[in-house]
Amino acid sequence: MNTKKAVLAVAGTGVLAGVVGLGVLAIPAGADEPPPVLPQISADQLVDSVANAKIPALAGKVSASENLGLPIKLLDGIGSASVWSDGQNRFRATLPGKSSEKTFVEDGGTLWTWDSQKNTVTKFAHGDKAVEPGKLAGKDPATIGKEALTWVRQYSDVKVDGTARVAKRPAYELVVTPKPTERTLLREIRVAVDSETRLPLRLQVLANGQSDPALKLEFTELNVGPQDAKLFQFTPPQGATVKEATKGDHQPKDPAEARKGFQDMISGLNLKTVGDGWDTTLVAKLPGDLNSLAGKAQEHANGQGGFGGGRGKDFDVTSLLKSFGKEVSGPWGTGYVFSTKVATALVTTDGRVAVGAVPEQVLTEAIGQVK
Amino acid sequence: MTAQVMPGPVRAPIGRLLRSELRWIYRRPRTLILLGLLALYPILFGIGTQLVDAPVRANGDQSIVAAVAGNALMLPVIVLSTTMIFFLPLGTTMTASDALAGEASHGTLRGLLLAPVSRVRLLAIKAFGVAVVSAAAALMTSLIAFVTGLVIAGPGSLVSISGTTLPVGEGLWRVLLATGWVIVQMWAVGAIALAVSASTEHPLLVLASVIGGLFVFGLLSTIPVLDWMHPFLITESWDSIVDVLRDPILSENLVTGLLRAVCYIVIGYSLALARMITKDS
Questions:
Q1: Which helix (H) or strand (E) holds A245?
Q2: In the structure, what pLDDT confidence band is assigned to residue A78 with cuts at 50, 70 and 90?
Q3: Shortest Cα distance, chain B CAs vs residue A331, angstroms
Q4: Which of A276, B135, B166, B241 could join B158 in a cystine, given CB atoms 3.0 to 4.6 angstroms apart?
């Protein structure tokens, strides 16, 4: 009978171990670790070192999440992307889907894009003049970093706020907080900078009255070290459709003409900014009021068919806007406000638009300046 | 059973017991019919993909069937992922239900329990039988699918979903990896089935509860409110079998799925052991 008891004890332990094992698997990895102790650094030094940093050879996983308070989650269904770099301006990134994948390979002379769902390869040969991060607009990165910091400091406080551990790597937390005089929905922007490579490891945008970041982009895994050279090569597989994209496809033949068209569009919209710093509001005047605009769009869509020109009238933009936004009115007119945790948009019935990371009141002030 | 006719004091050699158990299983017509169907399935699937008229949907996306059509790497993995949700668990559970509940319903289990074979050993032999059947079924299915794919689409068509073309050796390695992973998942199903089998005399009850349980798991995993429960469901990581098709392989979910299956195996065999040892002979 002793063996029976012993066997039962083993069986009991086995059940317990199995259940505990399942429980451990259910707990997300990465329990809270104490923040690392790192040598002190000033915000200027940190920004300077980030601007001068070169992307080393690495392999990592990046994930993005948002909590904007929209009825639908924008980033839902996007798994974590994997990224690789060989330290010499060759990159690879994959965006996994449920049973598909999008792959991007920059091999130094050609940018390859692969979509497994469409079985299509896009080849963009840009020559060996790949983007050199070292020289942007003829300035060295340290100068750009300094100028940007000076500009940001006009409206915000920039400081190094302790340390953090991101993807198991020790990092400095650089925090940009709007000055108290700034009227914005945002509370602060936090950037975690890797203490060794000075790569930004995490970006968090925090809004007022919200403890979870409204927007978060972070490395969940990062290994710095040499990578397999094969990762940075791509050969289109058998049976795939290969599309060649050249620089010409991205812009019209005559650059001057293109610029003029773009300028016409912008001036037609009367696009301008009101306010500065965190209060900056983008305002525009659409050509015509809302309902006539929708009517035009409908006519244009139907025009090719040659019939059904009257359908534009059936399409009531106002009721659509009412269902999404809140109706407001003031001395400036009547309009609809759409708010998220980080930004607000105002559209008036006579076709004026204002957008900014500001509360509604700032938008109504700004929209009064649009004629 | 041969174990029954062993002379009293002499311990039956384990190899002979195992061989006898396997002979017993592979002589059952239902086992052979199921294996036959599993062997035909990848061939029919492979031919079927060649007969699809509209390989590309209106939105420009390929249907999964069209993606398989020209890809010798995709065929075995898709065949595995479709069989692992029904046919492979069915075969595994059927064998497990015959192993103990079936013998109990025929009255032959009593003889085995009285025979000079310890109950732990008896359970080990039964577990071995179940494990061999599920492993052989999965391996046979995936290898037939791999060969079918090579014949239909040619050796240049081992394309990962990351767009890289793999050499035949690497492709075979990926298929074997996927097969091994599926086999461990089936062993987990078999362990639970054997535990149920040890506690009942009705083989149909084993089949109904395990196959029904898998369906319920599948249903539960689609209910977002129950997301705290999802990591405990064995079916939770079964979708990640496609990760072997990525280049490089995305191992995170596969490893979690493997460990989850191991937990189920430990729980299943512990329960089966407890039931066997306390069973009245």
A1: strand A241-245
A2: low
A3: 47
A4: B166
